[in-house]
Amino acid sequence: MSDPKPLNIGMIGYGFMGRAHTNAYCKVNHFFDLPYKPVLKAACARNEEKIKEFANNWGYESTETDWRKLLERDDIDAVDICVPNNLHHEIAIAAAEAGKWIMCEKPLAMNVAEGEEMCAAVEKAGVPNLVWYNYRRCPAVTLAKQLIDEGRLGRVFHYRSQFLQDWTISEEVPQGGAGTWRLDVEAAGSGVTGDLLAHCIDTAIWLNGPIASVTAMTETFVKERVHAETGEKTPVGIDDAAAFLARFANGSLAIFESTRYARGHKALYTLEVNGEKASLSWDLHDLHRLQYFDHGDDSVVRGWRNIHVSDGDQPYMGNWWVPGLQIGYEHSFVHTVADFLTHVGTDSPAGPTFQDALETQKVCDAILASAKSGSWSNI
Amino acid sequence: MSDPKPLNIGMIGYGFMGRAHTNAYCKVNHFFDLPYKPVLKAACARNEEKIKEFANNWGYESTETDWRKLLERDDIDAVDICVPNNLHHEIAIAAAEAGKWIMCEKPLAMNVAEGEEMCAAVEKAGVPNLVWYNYRRCPAVTLAKQLIDEGRLGRVFHYRSQFLQDWTISEEVPQGGAGTWRLDVEAAGSGVTGDLLAHCIDTAIWLNGPIASVTAMTETFVKERVHAETGEKTPVGIDDAAAFLARFANGSLAIFESTRYARGHKALYTLEVNGEKASLSWDLHDLHRLQYFDHGDDSVVRGWRNIHVSDGDQPYMGNWWVPGLQIGYEHSFVHTVADFLTHVGTDSPAGPTFQDALETQKVCDAILASAKSGSWSNI
Amino acid sequence: MSDPKPLNIGMIGYGFMGRAHTNAYCKVNHFFDLPYKPVLKAACARNEEKIKEFANNWGYESTETDWRKLLERDDIDAVDICVPNNLHHEIAIAAAEAGKWIMCEKPLAMNVAEGEEMCAAVEKAGVPNLVWYNYRRCPAVTLAKQLIDEGRLGRVFHYRSQFLQDWTISEEVPQGGAGTWRLDVEAAGSGVTGDLLAHCIDTAIWLNGPIASVTAMTETFVKERVHAETGEKTPVGIDDAAAFLARFANGSLAIFESTRYARGHKALYTLEVNGEKASLSWDLHDLHRLQYFDHGDDSVVRGWRNIHVSDGDQPYMGNWWVPGLQIGYEHSFVHTVADFLTHVGTDSPAGPTFQDALETQKVCDAILASAKSGSWSNI
Amino acid sequence: MSDPKPLNIGMIGYGFMGRAHTNAYCKVNHFFDLPYKPVLKAACARNEEKIKEFANNWGYESTETDWRKLLERDDIDAVDICVPNNLHHEIAIAAAEAGKWIMCEKPLAMNVAEGEEMCAAVEKAGVPNLVWYNYRRCPAVTLAKQLIDEGRLGRVFHYRSQFLQDWTISEEVPQGGAGTWRLDVEAAGSGVTGDLLAHCIDTAIWLNGPIASVTAMTETFVKERVHAETGEKTPVGIDDAAAFLARFANGSLAIFESTRYARGHKALYTLEVNGEKASLSWDLHDLHRLQYFDHGDDSVVRGWRNIHVSDGDQPYMGNWWVPGLQIGYEHSFVHTVADFLTHVGTDSPAGPTFQDALETQKVCDAILASAKSGSWSNI
To answer: Is the separation of the CB atoms in B182 and B296 below 8 Å?
Structure first.
């Protein structure tokens, strides 16, 4: 393949996701043949000291403290939005108007209304766009998609998914601020619904098609927390836990659950699909494995197959090491970049696009509405 | 201990549960010191040939073909009701009136109205009574109860439970008849709700207290099946799958699900409880194990403990073999008999009593009502 | 099937194995159609009080305190030898001479010389004989045998097996006496070699054919223990741990290990076989499961199958409950009796016979010899 | 921390290990604060086209086709030897004489004699040196080391370790050449002993101290293979499988096994240590988990703890993502570089040094000698 074309990245934010995405930009061309090669052109954040430290550590060529300045720069091709949810809308629309490619951290927006405006903006501008629902590209999850698309499961009866954490059980955890803005409803929009269930929903729609209706419940176990910015105890506005029943358009039933109060689970994202002919399940704590049950197997030796997804003929794995050697969490971001750059400008861009992410946003809004009303919400 | 007093059993039914209970009566005194010793006095069923074969195989001393005759016999102390759900009500009330002890297969009744009359009857007659929710007495589940009662979990945030099977996926499975009456709404009252979710609910209430409210969905995937007795295809009236969200009285949230369309799962009854200080989980496919996470463990070596429940200081296990050697499904019935006979006639009879089982029935009725109404039902 | 013929059992011993075998005699005809039905005719032990208590609990019709008296009784058809290893030889030979069927606890004898005399005795007398290597008849192990015999594994390259316990780590555990005669070399002959490795070897030969040669090491970690009978500290003569390398006659390589000093393992008997086309593994702590890897599976979904051995088409399981419901340790003894009684008097009696067990004894002797000499021993 | 000092790397080789090490050089400073920063100065191999492609992909500034030229360059501070085993000796000694730091791929040498000369050379030159036994630095393995050093296991009774693969079962796999030089005894020196057992031994000595004596067996299952360079079928000189019993200096017993004929296992490196107070086990197929059993736990809730090693207080993990998110195989190399650069020039350099690797080489040679002699070899 000819040498890849440079793609100048402007990173907005420097937190956990800023690091994860930047690491992906650094690694992706070492392992994948691509038409583009990300260049770490500029990093941007309001805190000048922090952003300079971040840029120095990762090798960004320059820094900005105002994202509007970043958008004005001609040497920036693409912006990566890694800031709290309440800023996605404004930045993304401005970036679209500036003609930049946009890779936006999930969830897309604070709500469907914002999301629709963002979709309209990227469509009008005709700019490539992506939302970082990275778990689609854990090889075991991608393999699940492949098996379903091949028809190996047959008619699907059941889908179930959880995202369980335990890091906010202590009442001492504050809301707001650098590491805890996800507990502040002003910055996050919602709690586990937008943060965790959104992942479950994105994968579910990708694997099993549209969700038709939901009924939900939410709970806030700790009612007040100190706000990191004011130092004062204020009511907690987010959902600490959320669960919902769903019906998919294809007739299958589903249960979904997410919480930050499941003692013993750090980041246990699980999914399972039961079909007429086969079933599969996966979880993030052993992300390199897929469990697969094929009813077509000879009955005396039928059992769940524990598949170590590390062979060269399994998704993405031919680009890494040798069979038996596992990859980890960070690689899902590398694959996201690889697929995005491979398909950009074609008729079938790598998802999830803004439009795809809007579908997830609609389900999130329906969950929150149902939890209030106590009745089913149609999507 | 002095020799146990004989307790003459009259068994009504000879199916799967008839075998499981009879096996328990045969074994229990070999392994437990008890005040009573079950004697296989009579077995009863309409089909004379079948019941004689059953009685001969297991050593029942006599047979009857009419349960009313059985109840008239003075040499019967206790009756065991192992017939389809639609017969529980009539037989149990008659047995109570005849002054017999009653061990009734689960679920208690077709609905709450029946259950209330049955409770009134045993209360009026003052006869010992029990419903065979056997899973409470898998040693790992009993250990879970013990850990919760000791306060090891602290405040409970989440409860989740499933009962997943896959034996009715084929449209060729008939409804009605000997092995498939559970698919016939006339005989069973409901589908997975009364058959499987009832187990989940009984254990849940036992471990985590009363359920306050539920919202549910049910589905019948195969709409028509041949009826085994008529040979004609008739509409299926049961729920093939059911799921519900719940709030417990103690403020914890729960999700429950049951189906006979989960390819790859034969009898996967699971439960998990997440508390502030610890969590635990269990499943029937490895019933001799309990998973336990203690947040109080030293942080670098904190992890889910995979407890092989086979030590002499764990519930019931001192009565069996030696550490490391597992027991199985049938032993849950032996423990049920052992506990029933140990506590009968005391102020704290071994549950679940008819009254306990009525609480489960109330939740089952609420599930079916909510699935119809689309809104929450209070218990 | 016509009613089974009574088979009068004379049980010698009342310990752990006495209970396990008696339980099997009680249950077997309830679950299997057999030509014979064991009758608990007499139980025998030197301690009159203990044996009367045992007989009363299990329903033995009579007791004896001298095994010679038992052998003289015409109403005893078969004797079950459940006493320490050093008594097997004398009792078995006398029983053979008395024309009794013999079911002898494992290992067969103290050494090969004794074993050869025992084999000669039963052959001369022409009496049915069996040694209780029960693990062959855990359904998952029997299924393993079936898969190997069907040729599913192809050429075998590797066999490995362990039996790990941890109950003698404390120096306070005595040697000799009722529960601890297995630590007394006078009663047991050897330590883990005869007690635990013997199980591994019996199964290995059954599954993979004769063992050709071994090289071994043994160790006694606690050099002195109080003797339960004398109350005095005396040297420990048994092997606390033993491991050996082996070559099978079929060219495969093997490693075997056993110990009572493996902290965390109560009774972890494991085995694994690696063949050209497939592999399988099993362990006693989850005895109802077989792990199976079939290289013929489509490569992207190839993985170890976790087989829950509880279906009606898997060995023995059609006689028990329904799919998904597991059986336990005790059932391996029930199956042993069932197979013994099914095949007794035919040309292919159910093994392991005395002759089969002698082959295992030869390997045990070779292990102990090699551990002393430091060189390979041929079998 | 002040900016790290550049460390100019000269990489010799471009294969699997060349990629793995280079990836580590690229990533390490993004995640660890270090006194040095590797600079990809030159890559070297005989095949000019291949090495230019490799250098271009990874960003090496220049290439060489003769390693002697590389050693002559003043702008090279350190060389990384990633070539077949038969070249380690000559290159390492020349590199030492040229005053370069040396990071050498494992095993150290073809045999002890070569290894001793290499140790002498680096000692004489006083150059920092390292051998890439990377598995020490999987966080779970490093945690195991920490737990043992803290005395949590107490006296160790047993060690066991395996490295099982299945990639050479087919007779069609050639020997010699780029991907298969490990099957050619001329290039590799031995088969699984130097390639796989060497890993097991390095970790074992690190965790449990010196090995005192061994008895071994080896086997070559496929006797002839086509040589990739000549196209002719020639005898296979390597060991396809090897197993040995060992006694450690601390009195513990061990079994080790390695093979490339274990169907179903791609790279299953396992280890387990049983101590008086606690036990631990680990395997490479789930490298982010450590199994830990603490006998000090309250007996009713005692069980193997399944530790997901992803918390900030566990080794290395504070430098990566957040709890619950796993890292993979490649990170063991990043940690190796990080530790090497942190400790270089201090009194306690990060191991394994050449001298440490020589101890492993001595055990490898003893294994091969014992397999020939059939008797025990002392180390």
So the answer is: no
- Beta pairing, strands C211-219 & C241-248: antiparallel
CATH for the stretch B5-134: 3.40.50.720
Does CATH place domain C137-378 in 3.30.360.10?
yes
A27-36 mean pLDDT: 98
Q: What's phi and psi for B153, nearest 5 deg? A: -90, -20
**Are the C-beta atoms of residues B83 and B70 closer than 8 Å to each other?**
no
Q: Verify whether the Cβ–Cβ distance D306 to B304 is below 8 Å.
A: yes
Q: How large is the ipTM?
A: 0.96
Q: Cα distance from B315 to chain D (closest Cα, Å)? A: 9
Alpha carbon distance A250, A269 (integer Å): 23
- Cis status, amide bond into A235, omega within 30 of 0: no
CATH of A136-378, one of 3.30.360.10, 1.10.10.410, 1.20.1300.10, 3.20.20.150: 3.30.360.10
Give the pLDDT score at C43.
Answer: 98
pLDDT exceeds cutoff 60 at C1: no
- Classify residue D284 by its DSSP letter: G
Using CB atoms, which chains have 3+ pairs under 8 A with C? A, B, D
Q: Are C204 and C271 in contact (CB under 8 A)?
A: yes
Q: Residue C194 in contact with residue C256, Cβ under 8 Å? A: no
- Give me the pLDDT at residue B2, please: 67
> In A, what residues contact B, Cβ < 8 A?
157-158, 160, 164, 166, 169, 215-217, 219, 221, 241, 243-245, 247, 253, 255, 257, 259, 261-265, 274-279, 293, 295, 304, 374-376
Q: What is the pTM of this model?
A: 0.97
C61-103 confidence digits (pLDDT tens): 999 999 999 999 999 999 999 999 999 999 999 999 999 999 9
Nearest CA in chain B to C306: B264
Our CA-based measurement puts residue D156 at a distance from the nearest CA of chain A, in whole angstroms, of 30
pLDDT value of residue B117: 98
Domain ranges of chain A: 5-134, 136-378
Query: In chain C, which residues have their Cβ closer than 8 Å to the Cβ of A308?
Result: 303
Mutate to test the interface with B, among C2, C259, C322 (most CBs of B within 10 A): C322
Distance to chain B for A265, nearest Cα, Å: 9
What is the helix (H) or strand (E) element at residue D39, kind and residue range?
strand D36-44
Q: How far apart are CA A357 and CA A109, in angstroms?
A: 9
- Exposed e or buried b for every residue in D245-278, given b needs 16+ CB within 10 A? bbbbeeebbbbbbbbbbbbbbbbbbbbbbbbbeb
Interface residue of C11, C27, C30 to substitute, partner B, most B CBs within 10 Å:
C30
The reply to whether residue A311 touches residue D266, judged by beta carbons under 8 angstroms, is: yes
Sign of the dihedral through C-alpha A307, A308, A310, A312: negative
